[in-house]
Amino acid sequence: MLGKISSPFLVLVLSLGALVGLGASRPSLQQQQSERLLDEGIALLARRQFSEAINVFNRFKQTNPRDARPYFYTGMAEAETGRLSAAALELDEAVRLAPQQLEYLLFQANLFARLKQKNHADDVLAIFRQAGNADHLDASWVWLLSEVYYRLERFDDALGALDLLEKRKPDDPRLDLNRGQVYALQSRFDQAQESLQKSLAKHPDNPLAHFESGKLLYLRGDLPGARKALLEAVRLDQNNPQYLQKLGAVSLAMKEIDEAIGYLERAADLDSGSAEVYYSLGQAWQRKGQRAKAAEYGQKFQKLKQEAEQTEEIERQLARGERMLDEGKDGEARAVFAQVVQADPDNWPAHGYLAEMFLGAGDLQKAWPHLAKMESLDADSVVGAWLMARYWHQQKQFEKACFYAEKVRLVRPGHAQLRHLLGSAYLGLNQPEKALAEFEAAVRLAPERADYRADLQRLENRKRQDK
Amino acid sequence: MQKHPRQILNQAPLKLFAYICVFSFCALGQEQKPPMTAQVPLPSNNSALDVAFTEMTKAAGIEGFRHLSGTPAKDYLIESTGAGCAFVDYDNDGWLDVYLVNGSTLEALRGLAKPPGAALYRNNRDGTFTDVTAKAGVANGGWGQGLCIGDFDNDGWQDIYVTNFGGNRLYHNNRNGTFTDIAIKAGVALGGWSTGCAFGDYDGDGLLDLFVAGYVDFNFENPPPSATGEAEMSDGVPEQSRKTAGMGAAYVAGMKYCQFRGQRVSCGPLGLKGAPDHLFHNNGDGTFTDVSAKAGVADRAGYYGFGVAWLDFDDDGRLDLLVANDSTPNYLYRNKGDGTFEDVSYSSGVSLNENGREQACMGVSVGDYDGDGRADIHMTNFSDDANVLYHNDGEGLFTETTFQAGIGEMTFPFLGWGTNFFDYDNDGFSDLLTVNGHVYPLVDRFKWGTSYKQRLLLFRNLHGRFFEVGSSAGAALNTVRSARGSATGDFDNDGDLDILLNNLDDPPTLLRNDGGNKAGHWLTLRLVGDPGRKCPRDAIGTVVFCTAQGRLIRDEVASGRSYNSQSDLRVHFGLGTATAVKKLEVRWAGGQKETYEIKDVDRFVTIEQGKGIVK
Hints:
The complex is a heterodimer. Chain A is mainly alpha-helical. Helices cover 77% and strands 0% of the residues of chain A. In chain A, 51% of the residues are buried. Chain B contains 8 helices and 38 strands. In chain B, strands 1-30-29-28 form a 4-stranded antiparallel beta sheet. In chain B, strand 28 and strand 29 (498-503) form a beta hairpin. Chain B is 5% helix and 33% strand. The interface between A and B is large, with 77 and 63 residues.
């Protein structure tokens, strides 16, 4: 489903024009300047200059901390660079600030789905159940909706989204391709084949459609047909390891062993992390009677598989720790995270949980190694910087606390707790003006916090007394 | 305080893990057309003419048996695995009797209710059966899983081994219509969760040894979360990182419930501790010794064993061992001939599918589907995955040929259990039966392309390629069932093979083959081994090669197989138009070979090792 004919990202960015001016009626000069900044960021985004775009959006956030848009765009940029967790954080803030914005919700669901957090994604998509909500989306967003449903294995909903798209652009060849993919997963093989054939008739140069067709024909036992389709996919996209692997596997099934080895070795050159390719290569060499070579690939396969299993086990442990945290079983959670760190010393989230728990308990000595490790693993992490700020603040090392807190403020100026901590750190550095500004921001962002108000009041009183 | 580093900057914490059924297909009763697993199939052009199966359960008088396994909610895995069945001639009258294993309930396990009990039906030789369970003393009473047949003491009478969740039974045949459970005395009772079993003489001493597969280390005192009960969906579950396509719901320690496609279901087997497998060496004095570890077949990895088959895959005259494992790689052990086995699971190619992925294998069948004289393997799998067919290439290697052979597409939405290679139309090619049914009752509420009760699949073999014949082989094949165990055998001794099913929470199914004996000539062999020549008396492990009209057909005397079931121990050959067998080579268990020419077919023949055709 995921291979679109043109860049889905570009299409989404270009379709964002409509969002830019939302709620803006006769803007002031300052607002106009801000909007220009946002436009600049979007233009950078469209040119795939992601870090530059993020810098511009962060600048925009400083003057517009309650505007959801820069968070949304930053999330898009982060997602495009593969930092999905960071992107999800940004989207979370965007959705908090603009909870009814359908595109934000959809993009958030997309991120959750890609992060394999299916339940979160399902929750977010609830809004599209309401009649007509999907109708309000631009076509490119409906494509994304169908894709998210597909990822979530909500096949009927995915088909529904495709039906909606058909009303708008009935000749789009992607419709049939994506339908074919969905039907195949639903074991509706006749319909799948028909759809893929339609897609290919409209767009014969789409390698993905040939690939899907090849997979389906193989599944249906038509080996020569499958081979032909896969050869075409490989002709159109010679460097796709997935296509080469499947072509190799089909050649192997047809007892064209040398040919199979050729395709599989090309696939292995392009993707040395595919256990499947090595398994097929092992089988191929085995059939050629070259057991030593077969064993060599067998070992590679076993190694990759073992690594994948270890990664999965760590993910399971991490999820277990998270669940215990949710249930308030902090001690047990801490033990689980410690196990994760032991098994995978570079596991950033586990270090993060442990650091946060020790910080919360005031055990700074135990928090430090985890914080240091987090920083060595990802110096740009806003979460890491926030925890560091809290650590140094508790150590009363206000200069360092300010250093890290300012890093966080750059990307999250609307975070009341941060602004309050920053104010307190500036106060510790005897910079009351800066402290006052931060305390004011904290109170503005969280007016319900009596403690923030009290701190602000105290500082204002002190200033008055000083005068 | 925000607890989660990843959410530490989130000022509006996420609603954690709450599941809301929001989509249209969640609603009941919206399915317009039944899924393929429950549809009446279209007639097939590839079916054998004038061969059809007729439902005989009621007429045969075995409809009184009703399998029972826990509650309809199927809270725990144990309630869904069902049980096996057998065609066995327990009274040596030459007619196949029927044995049906039953499940149980939690109340019965705790002594608060009467267990449902297994049933033995004696063949009245007129198409009907009589319930002789009480007299025979084989009601079991445990939470039955499966069985296998073998004459372990070489007295000429079939004994029955029944696997349970709990202690197993070894019913010794008293030769007078009764049995005595000697499992404890014989040292084969075990006590965990046993599933598939098979007798076979692995060390060539003429005595049947016994292999028993272990499934899950399960305890009702400390069970994993149930499919229903107190936990609420909003209580939270972790995201499942484990790849579970084509497998059941994985459990992670501490989970409040398990999920399949976002729905709460019973847990496992993934995530639960596996139970070990056991190989028992027959001491020849009515007792057995557990030699699993010494022999190298103890399942050190803790995989979830189901179907079991002894087979000689490398044709060296020694029985090798195959264990179909659920959700974990399968085992294939090559018999080294010194009392130990070499694990060739991976190198042989049968541990994983062609993509290097483990499958949720349930039942196993062994047969030569392409007439090359070698033993091929078929195993059933979970839904969203194809059943798998491994072609024996010789030299210890197998190639997966599922899709080339025409089995893949059709089996995808089905969740398969019992499976049998058998030549239903006597054309000389091994056809293939798979019986099906899902483990999660709630699948019927969703458009998942599958159903809880499913029809069976009968594939006709046409020169090595399979074609599902659907309703062309009788309307009885259209009925949807929660089938588990399956056995084949000629219960009416009319020269064609019939089908017996054990259905979860339902009466069994007896399908009579009508017309198979007219569609092609046939020959059925009863083989009697000579323990003095190191062959067990019931000849289990003996392989027969039949050459007729220039074609080679291979079959064997086998204990166990399918899904924890037992088929006819007689060897049946469909001969097509051949009216004679030019060469019948019997490779007796123990290694001796004898060759015969059979001039008259369409009959039952008894061959005794060293004596030749005696009847």
